[in-house]
Design a protein that fits this description.
125 residues; mainly alpha
């Protein structure tokens, strides 16, 4: 997640204070509900298995990255941001976050060769 800056380790406890499908898992902080529904590695798991199975993606960046790619490919950008930032209870929450990500991506693409550094202050949702 962008909130983690460049640290490519999960420096927060599994679940990050949440449980079940809302638990935040791995360096990308995907919620357990997304992982068990759309990541092949966890399909068929129950909401109650977030702590035990979630440790796999939380402690193994390879599994977390594999799941991240699968989530993105299966959901597409809009649905991915909606579920990741808002869960199933607030599906519109990802729209604002997605706008920042798109803006950042467009800006970076426009400045790939000129060496211009950029910083965006993206407020937490």
């Amino acid at each position: 997640m962008l909130e983690n800056g460049c640290a490519f380790t999960a420096t927060f406890p599994v679940g990050n204070g949440k449980q079940g499908d809302s638990a935040e898992i791995g360096v990308y902080r995907n919620n357990w509900g997304m992982l068990r529904q759309y990541c092949d590695h966890f399909q068929g798991a129950s909401p109650d298995q977030w702590s035990d199975l979630g440790q796999q993606a939380h402690n193994d960046v390879g599994i977390a990255t594999q799941c991240q790619v699968q989530l993105w490919n299966k959901l597409g950008a809009d649905q991915f941001f909606s579920l990741q930032r808002g869960g199933t209870g607030n599906p519109g929450a990802g729209a604002a976050y997605g706008q920042y990500v798109y803006k950042y991506n467009d800006f970076c693409a426009a400045h790939l060769t000129d060496g211009m550094a950029t910083y965006y202050n993206v407020p937490s949702m």
